[in-house]
Design a protein that fits this description.
Length: 178
């Protein structure tokens, strides 16, 4: 399998100029479903499987799950900032370095699976409460000085959710672990 396909099993995220209410609802449902999908897929995996990289020179599944927890915690906070401040500049973080910290390399995935579960409960509750005015609110990401509308960020995290789930799922399929 080609490295690009292993890295991006559902393709790269491509933002749209606008999102319909139906697309936003679907994207929120994808975000909502992630914790259960991960728990169902990884629930019986032993340390050997969890310490397997999903691609050459990639993260282990353990690091991947901890990354999703880190990323989605940051996303939830960014939403709250955008909803309570006028176009705030968010704080980026070095995800590659975070993935190398001892808790990301060694902690049981159950910790992050539960964290994802509960962050998503709060996040989805918030997302489902947003109207058109709130979905048009923005924040600035200083890494590329981009202004990000919340409806687009929802789409990005729906993609992010499925992107990382598919990395683990396709690893399981390739190794007949499913």
């Amino acid at each position: 399998m080609e490295l690009e396909q292993l890295r991006f099993p559902i393709g790269r995220f491509v933002p749209q100029d606008q999102y319909t209410p139906a697309e936003i609802k679907t994207n929120i449902q994808i975000i909502s479903a992630l914790p259960s999908k991960f728990i169902n897929l990884l629930g019986g995996w032993d340390n050997e499987k969890l310490n397997t990289t999903y691609r050459p020179e990639g993260w282990t599944v353990r690091q991947l799950v901890h990354h999703v927890a880190d990323s989605h915690m940051n996303a939830y906070i960014r939403f709250r900032l955008a909803l309570t401040e006028d176009n705030p500049t968010i704080k980026p973080y070095e995800e590659q370095l975070w993935a190398e910290l001892p808790d990301a390399k060694e902690a049981q995935v159950e910790l992050s699976l539960q964290l994802i579960r509960y962050i998503h409960l709060r996040w989805v509750l918030l997302l489902n409460s947003l109207g058109e005015k709130e979905l048009a609110r923005t924040y600035v990401h200083p890494a590329n000085n981009s202004t990000n509308r919340l409806d687009m960020v929802i789409a990005n995290y729906a993609w992010h959710s499925e992107h990382h789930y598919q990395q683990a799922f396709q690893l399981a399929a390739r190794n007949n672990w499913a």
